[in-house]
Design brief:
Helix content is about 55%, strand content about 10%. With about 230 residues, the protein is of the alpha/beta class. The protein has two domains: about 5-90; about 100-200. Strands 2-1-5-3-4 form a five-stranded mixed β-sheet. The longest helix is centred in the N-terminal third of the chain and has 89 residues, at about 5-90. It is rod-shaped and about 160 Å long.
């Protein structure tokens, strides 16, 4: 080769050396950049995962709290429904239940006749009629009387010779009808004979709040304070 060819080759080699250096540097930078980018990607992915897990946990807590509040609300709703049914039951007239009717049937063969006096109110008269049906089904001969116009009472009263070993008292107690008792010898109703026990059917027991009668009187100077 001539002098010019050698010089040209040397120039090409020198240029290639420069490009090799440049490309080597670029490769090194690319490798480092890839490592840095990979590290940043991993770190940011971890941070994003932590955020997502925290949001998921918070959402689960919110759902759990909402479910707990819903359970409390449902329980309270059930309690209120029961309370409402009890209030409705209180305001309904009395009705003879099956277990009460069945308890009165134990009088079959133990008593042959009985007198019943109704208190003059619709609720008491309706309830008395139900008791009359039960006693009639038990085989008793039932005579019905109405209370004098000015007579009012609550509950059930049985007038008989003795409260001990009294089939009527036993049957009404087993029925849960909570009868009171009075000696038939002291009963004063001119139109009601004493040859059979008397059952008085009065109004249902009222529910009353304590009344207010004003402030208590001031003690006198010689009277100690309560």
């Amino acid at each position: 080769m001539g002098a010019m060819g050698k010089a040209a080759l040397q120039a090409w080699l020198n240029a290639l050396d420069v490009w090799l250096i440049i490309f080597g540097v670029l490769v090194a930078i690319g490798a480092v950049g890839g490592s840095v980018a990979g590290f940043l990607h991993w770190r940011r992915s971890g941070q994003l995962q932590a955020i997502l897990e925290a949001e998921n946990l918070a959402q689960q807590n919110d759902i759990a709290q909402a479910n707990a509040r819903a359970a409390v609300a449902q329980a309270r709703t059930a309690e209120l429904r029961i309370e409402l049914e009890k209030e409705k039951e209180k305001r309904l007239g009395r009705s003879l239940k099956k277990e009460e009717f069945d308890a009165l049937q134990q009088l079959k063969g133990k008593i042959t006749k009985v007198n019943i006096m109704k208190e003059r109110s619709v609720e008491a008269a309706i309830f008395a009629d139900q008791i009359i049906v039960a006693l009639t089904q038990a085989g008793l001969d039932v005579k019905v009387y109405f209370a004098p116009p000015d007579y009012v009472w609550t509950g059930i009263m049985i007038w008989s010779p003795s409260p001990e070993n009294d089939p009527l008292m036993d049957a009404f107690k087993k029925a849960g009808l909570l009868p009171g008792w009075g000696n038939i010898g002291s009963m004063v109703y001119p139109d009601v004979p004493h040859d059979a026990p008397l059952i008085e059917i009065g109004e249902r027991f009222p529910e009353l709040k304590a009344p207010y009668f004003g402030p208590p009187p001031s003690p006198t100077p010689n009277q100690p304070k309560p």
